[in-house]
Every structure is written in C-alpha cells, then in structure tokens.
C-alpha cells in the first residue's frame, strides 16, 4: 500500500505541503482536489522522487521514498503535469527509451511499447516528435509512459487535462479498468470526474488536508443533499406553501427553479409530492438532489481562505 507520513515541503517561507498523512489500499482511485496552488502537484512530485520532502516521508509497499527510493520508484508510474520530457524524440523512440530505462530488453521492449500504443491510440503519431504533438496527444504519450511497466501504483497529475471529450472518456475508462488491481492517485479540477472515477477524494488547500471521504460522503455534506428542486409556474406561491412544511428547513427561488431544503426530520420528497398532488400544481420537473460537489468544494476551501 501507499503510506504517507507527515509529508511536508517548504519553498522559502511558503508551506506548499503541510504535514500530509494518509494511507491508500490497492483497488482505490484517490482523487486530489483543491484550488490552484494547493500543493497537489508538489505532493505528487515528492511521492515519485522528483522533489525531496522538507520533512516526513512516504512508503510504497514498504519501500521508503527517501531511503529506498529506487525500489519505491520501480513500483510507480507517474504522469507529471504538462508535457513529457525529450520533445525532440519521436513518440515511438521515446516509448522504447522509457521501456529500456524501465529495464526491459529484447522482444519485451516492442511488446510493452506496442501495448501502450494500442491502449492510448497513438498509432497515427508514432513518427512525430513529441514537441510537435497537440496538447491532448502529449498527455496521452505521458500516460503511455506512466503505465508501460504496469506498476502497482499510478500517480497521475491531471490525466484528462486538455483531452477532447472522446479521449476524456477513453482515459477514464482506462483508469477504471486498471483500478481494481492498483493504487491510483489522480489530481483533477473536473468535479464530475470525482464521481465518474474516484472511490475516495481528498480536498487539499494551502498544503493541508481538509476532507478525506467517499464521493457519496462529500455529497452528503452539501446543503443540497436530499433537497427537492421543482420547475413550475408561480414559484413564489409554491415557495410560501412549501415553506410551511415541517419537513422543510428553507426554501430558495433562483433562476426559475425552486429548491426546498430538508429539515432534520421526515421525508421531504414525499411531503413535497403530497402538496403537489393536493394543490393540483402543474409541475414540469421535480428532482431529489444528491448534493452538489462544487458547493461542497467551495464551502470547504472557502472556509480555509476565511
Ligand atoms: N519550485 C518551486 N519554487 C517555489 N514555489 C513553488 C515551486 N513549486 C511549487 N511552488 C508553490 O507551491 C505551491 C503549490 O504548488 P502546486 O503546483 O503543488 O499546486 P497544485 O495544487 O498542483 O496547483 P494547480 O491546481 O494549479 O496545479 C504554489 O504556491 C506554488 O507556487
Ligand atoms: Mg498542479
């Protein structure tokens, strides 16, 4: 497993990563969320040996990233932010180089390279130099080199950044497919990705861990969790009627929609349904809300700013 212990990184007086501790078991896709500058990439760089910690450490299946760095790095694949290095190499030359650097020899080099070319649909750009690739293809080459040696731990810094919708879908599918056997840590700013991809999510701001939960657990912290939203005519009249329900804590009318927030007791959805039927309202849409991740994100990271 991956065990992070009080990992810390300072840049001068800035605490970019502030005593971060967590453990991850295989079969987990852990999402790193947080505002720009939160310390996500810095944490990933430390885990993968590209940056030395100022304090604390981590262990990858028992191999300490500071004292047993090479063994730890063998267990990991890393997609850094931005483009892969060696822009002057062609894609196929670069992937062969990575395969050799990972210790493969003979036929195994071609076999490994062929496999990632297929998984990331790189056939059409094989002869092209990396620096001339479009942004999305650079990301895909970066991913290809990260998974080439089939490591048990993948550290992926914004893996779907810059990909078109089809490729986003493909890369998420690839990550989900690999997930049961691996520890995968992904950073992302795309909140839908948390639900689509992650089994666990951590919200980080100013280098500190502010939340560590399942996607469902994060949604349950939303004020919209179990709220009921209606689209219908005469919202104001409906709002005052629904505000009288003991199951309702608060009613909000915004942009042509009415949202009733649940009080701590009773079944709000059933209660609202009852009123709708009783009053004979013509309702265009009625929806039970799971919760809104963007609102949870803003409230958790905003609290930190305040
Ligand atoms: N080499 C460096 N020297 C000085 N400061 C740095 C260095 N690398 C990162 N930082 C600072 O550390 C903080 C964390 O940066 P980091 O790149 O880890 O953020 P992030 O969470 O990945 O943000 P983003 O969402 O924008 O990718 C930022 O304030 C950044 O400016
Ligand atoms: Mg980053």
- The average pLDDT value, as a whole number, equals 94
Shape: elongated
Which homologous superfamily in CATH is the superfamily of the largest domain? Answer: P-loop containing nucleotide triphosphate hydrolases
CATH fold name of the largest domain:
Rossmann fold
Low-pLDDT runs: none
The radius of gyration over CA amounts to 24 Å
* Helix-strand string: EEEHEEHEHHHEHEHEEHEHEEHEH
Counting DSSP H or I runs of 4 or more residues, the number of helices is 11
Helix content: 25-40%
Q: Record the strand order, biggest sheet.
A: 6-7-8-3-9-10
The strand count comes to 14
Distance between the termini: 35 Å
Largest sheet: 6 strands, mixed
The CATH class assignment of the largest domain is: Alpha Beta
Number of domains as seen in the coordinates: 2
Please give the CATH architecture of the largest domain. Answer: 3-Layer(aba) Sandwich
Structural class: alpha/beta
Hetero compounds: adenosine-5'-triphosphate, magnesium ion
């Amino acid at each position: 497993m991956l065990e992070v212990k009080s990992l810390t990184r300072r840049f001068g007086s800035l605490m970019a990563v502030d005593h971060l501790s967590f453990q991850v078991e295989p079969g987990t896709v852990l999402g790193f969320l947080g505002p720009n500058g939160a310390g996500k990439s810095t944490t990933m760089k430390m885990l993968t040996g590209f940056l030395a910690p100022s304090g604390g450490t981590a262990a990858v299946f028992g191999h300490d990233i500071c004292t047993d760095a090479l063994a730890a790095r063998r267990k990991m694949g890393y997609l850094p932010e931005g483009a892969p290095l060696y822009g002057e190499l062609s894609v196929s030359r670069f992937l062969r180089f990575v395969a050799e650097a990972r210790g493969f020899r003979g036929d195994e080099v071609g076999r490994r390279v062929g496999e990632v070319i297929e998984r990331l649909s790189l056939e059409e750009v094989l002869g092209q130099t990396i620096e001339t690739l479009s942004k999305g293809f650079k990301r895909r080459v970066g991913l290809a080199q990260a998974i080439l040696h089939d490591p048990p731990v993948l550290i992926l810094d914004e893996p779907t950044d810059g990909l078109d919708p089809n490729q986003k879908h493909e890369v998420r599918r690839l990550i989900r497919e690999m997930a049961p056997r691996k520890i995968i840590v992904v950073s992302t700013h795309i909140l839908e990705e948390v639900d689509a991809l992650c089994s666990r999510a951590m919200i980080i701001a100013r280098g500190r861990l502010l939340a560590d939960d399942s996607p469902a657990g994060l949604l349950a912290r939303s004020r919209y969790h179990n709220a009921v939203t209606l689209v219908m005519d005469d919202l104001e009249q409906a709002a005052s009627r629904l505000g009288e329900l003991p199951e309702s804590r608060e009613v909000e009318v915004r942009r042509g929609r009415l949202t009733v927030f649940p009080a701590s007791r009773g079944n709000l959805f059933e209660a609202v349904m009852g009123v709708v039927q009783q009053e004979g309202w013509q309702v265009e849409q009625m929806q039970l809300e799971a919760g809104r991740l963007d609102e949870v994100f803003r409230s958790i990271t905003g609290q930190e700013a305040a």
